[in-house]
Amino acid sequence: MTIEKNNNSFIDLLLINPPNMDHSPINLFSLFLHKLVNYFPPGLLYLAANVKRNGYKVKIYDMELNYNIKKLLKFIKSEKPKIIGITALSFSYLNALKTLRIIKNRFPKVVTIIGGIHISKNPTDAIKRNYVDYELLGEADFTLVELLNYVLKKKGKINDIEGLVYINHEKIIQNPGFPIVEELNSLPYPALELLDNKRYYISFQKYHPSSIIMGSRGCPFQCIFCDKLTNKLRLRTPENIISEIKFMYRNYKIRDFQFYDLTFNADRNWVKDICSKLIEENLPIAWRCTSRVELMDDQLVKLMKKAGCYLIALGVESGNNNSLKFLKKGFKVKDIIKAFKLTKKYNLETHAYYIVGIPGEDKKAFLKTIKLIKSIAPDYINSLTLRPYPHTELAKISKEKGWFDFSNINFLKPDFKYQNKLTLLFDEMSPEEIIKMQRYGFISYYLNINYILRIIFKLVKEPRRFFFNIWKIFIELLKKF
Fold first, then answer.
1. What is the architecture, at CATH level 2, of domain 204-447?
2. Quick one: CATH architecture of 13-174?
3. Which pairs with CB-CB distance under 8 Å and at least 24 residues apart come from 326-334?
């Protein structure tokens, strides 16, 4: 599908980040929990940067911050984009489709595109619903530019664009290929200038403003529940990463960074190189990351701390070795204990993720996880029920075992409460018991006297940091209503 040149159009491309949940006032408590974090849409920032580099005018509309469809339609009417693109994870897919349907009904001539992990794993699903003109599979950093060249400048051939799904003579065509960016250094820095940097935060960050940085893509590990695009790990050079950090610090006064890598310490020598160079630069910054427990060692953690790391998020998942084996985590409980001892040795904050509702775990077994969490004493916790995202190994096993009714697509329902209550059906615990245990784990940890005393100590030690973050959350909640 090509379009005629429209001189009245202000921008060539509008990229939309769809909402992840229902933002209505009746979900106030869920919304409060959701607002503990306002994440940048990292994929769109990198896409936009590459589009800009190729001479196109692009803007980003983040519905996580501006959840009002009337305002979105007004924005589209004002900016007159020639093409509108939207991204979708599995849990935001239905909201993405809903947004596209409304846009198509209001602006039937606008060209629409969808991409992201969910559509990459479920090609043709969106285009057959008639809300979308093109689907982009895989990592679309360069194929999006090729598509813009074809649609807006009539350059190139549509059948040469890898991983593109489109309709030709009422027939759905899927071009071969699944694009993966091999040389991450070839990508420009994310286009932070397209968003209000001050509105993005994490409730425990040290400095404001904060930003993301992508050091790697892909993850080589085999966790059966992970909904990721590819196992292939690709790394930017440490020099390229340091150059971006310096650029962000000097141009945006950013001192707090989150490495948006699936597994930051997948290559420990690479991490050590980054840390060594950060120490040499001696920049007044702080940063956080997500890492694997079995890949933590004394030398690495010490170096990370010295280089400015203040928080590490770690996937604990379970306090039972049998469950860790089932999930194919590749480590044991002893590795979890060792990792958290190392973080405490070097006074690093930790964020522990764990799973409720693992097949084979009854209430007694799950309480071992709670006992482990209390013993390793992370600064923050996050628990989710185990859910079978499409095309994961867990989805395949769940279908074979009858643990989930895949005839009902409601597991994608974009309601935050519903997401947390989604469970598998197995003999050891009922769905009601799983939710009860999830609630018990949350309350018993955060209302524990030892945890409360630790929080009081933090408030006394860094009052400005924590009260400022609470104020940010309050202001963002007010903007929703």
1. Alpha-Beta Barrel (3.20)
2. 3-Layer(aba) Sandwich (3.40)
3. 326/224, 326/358, 326/359, 326/360, 327/223, 327/224, 327/225, 327/355, 327/358, 328/222, 328/223, 328/224, 328/393, 329/221, 329/223, 330/221, 330/222, 330/292, 330/294, 331/292, 331/293, 331/294, 333/372
